[in-house]
Amino acid sequence: MLLICAWPAVCGRTWEMTNIYGKGKELCKSTWGHCSIYNRRLPAGFSYRRLYLQLDEDDTGASINMILFFCVCVCLSVKGISYFMSKGILLDHPTELAKFIFYTRRLNWKMLRIYLDERRDVLDELVTLHNFSNQFLPNALRDFFRHIHAPEERGEYLETLITKFSHRFCTCNPGLVRELGLSPDAVYVLCYSLILLSIDLTSPHVKNKMSKREFIRNTRRAAHNVSDDFVGHLYDNIYLIGHVAA
Questions:
Q1: Could you tell me the domains of the chain?
Q2: pLDDT tens-digit profile of 193-212?
Q3: Which of 28-37, 141-150, 208-217 is predicted least confidently?
Q4: What is the largest CA-CA distance in the chain?
């Protein structure tokens, strides 16, 4: 409650400084990296202060800046997205929604996961915003899961995420694909192997950890064209850095 009461005052002081230096748009972008309204012709009298704070009350009588704070800064919800679209801040287009999600870091990953599971068109666009060029596979997978969190259980949604990641990784690394003989299907298998290895090496419930030799042998059974050296480097990465989906 204290945070709710203090928020307008804090924002007000912040805006006094930004009005002096004329950096209102930059402050908006520091919180929401992409909004459709940034690239549109703005009406006369438009104020980024009003966009950021929205101190007028909405039709429910609630302070809009509180709605923004809780629906957008703290959690992503259909209501929060719909509100932004109703005010012309966001366009109801998969690419625009994907950019908003990609460039806004303070979103609740549980709500985001539900939203993307329902809006596969937005998920498709969000995947294409990732650039995995010249990234080692497990590092790229970590980067992917930092933006699009993996579900807690195996299922259709996890399979969808790994499939989309595998295609995107191959698209971003055509040279590596040719050199190592990779394909989206092979990357898919490697990703699952990395997830299982991550669980094996990091879980306190697994007493007998998988050895590097075992990992190479098991992975090569499913991904025949991948070299032992490459699979060994995958193992080393998980052993040294940790879980790919933590």
A1: 2-108 (no CATH), 130-241 (1.10.1000.11)
A2: 999 999 999 999 999 999 99
A3: 28-37
A4: 68
